[in-house]
Amino acid sequence: MQVMQVAPLSDQQLIRTYLDGEEKAFEILLHRHKTKIYTAIYLFTKDQSLAEDIFQEVFIKIINTLRSGKYNHEGKFLQWAMRIAHNLCIDYFRRNKRRPHVSPTEEFDIFNVLSLSDESAEQKIMRSQSHDRVRRLVDALPPEQREVVILRHYADMSFKEIAQLTRVSINTALGRMRYALINIRRMVDEKEMMLQ
User: Fold this and answer.
1) 65 Cβ neighbours under 8 A, 6+ residues apart
2) DSSP letter assigned to residue 101
3) At how many degrees (to 10) do helices 23-45 and 77-96 cross?
4) What is the CATH number of domain 9-101?
5) Cα angle at 40 between 34 and 45, to 5 degrees?
6) Which of 48, 81, 96, 118 is the most exposed place for a label (fewest CB within 10 A)?
7) Which residues of the chain are in CATH 1.10.1740.10 domains?
8) What global pTM score does this model have?
9) Residues 6 or more apart in contact with residue 57 via CB below 8 angstroms
10) CATH numeric code, 105-196
11) How confident is the prediction along the chain (196 residues), in pLDDT tens digits per residue?
12) What's the sign of the alpha-carbon dihedral 123, 129, 132, 137?
């Protein structure tokens, strides 16, 4: 007996199915993207309960937009949801006049949600130490550079999407990434020189 493989529905198909009255389709869509969206929010807020609140706001806004028929599908649901999340984070920080600061806490660590292959205890320790160093380097970047690094590497957004989301030109987004990498290399070189 041959088992037939069924391809999963695309985001657009799930949205259409949800709008046709099938609530389960939205659950699948939420489950598919919740880790990336929550992680990006958490990296901006550095506060688990605030990240959870904003995450809920994001999906309430998504549901309201879908139900009102205002969602113009371009096949980029995740990028659209990330833009909503980013805007809600920025709104929060504007209201409270504080800048996001990225670093892990005991409750949440970005590297725990990234899937990695099976590894030995030694490899896990080395990876954990490497991730801690990378986190400290990213955290030491100026806010605009840190934002681009988070959106590019943790939220997996293109530079065009980052530019639209942060309301700067693509060249500015690329420049911020370039300066972030230069600053990270400089910090690594300074640490190596201090160790010698």
Assistant:
1) 71
2) -
3) 40
4) 1.10.1740.10
5) 120
6) 118
7) 9-101
8) 0.57
9) 88
10) 1.10.10.10
11) 565 566 788 888 888 898 898 889 889 988 888 888 888 888 778 788 888 999 999 989 988 988 888 887 666 888 888 888 888 888 887 777 654 444 444 444 444 444 444 555 666 566 556 666 777 788 888 888 888 888 887 767 788 888 887 888 999 999 999 999 898 888 888 877 665 5
12) negative
- One-letter identity of residue 189: D
Alpha carbons within 13 angstroms on the beta-carbon side of residue 120 total 3
Find all residues with CB under 8 Å of 74, minimum gap 6, and list them: 80
Q: Where in the chain is the domain with CATH 1.10.10.10?
A: 105-196
pLDDT given for residue 4 in this prediction: 56
- pLDDT confidence of residue 102: 46
CA-CA distances (angstroms) from residue 110 to 76, 130, 191?
A: 23, 13, 24
* Closest to 23 in 3D by CA, of 67, 89, 61: 67
Task: Compute the residue count for the chain.
Answer: 196
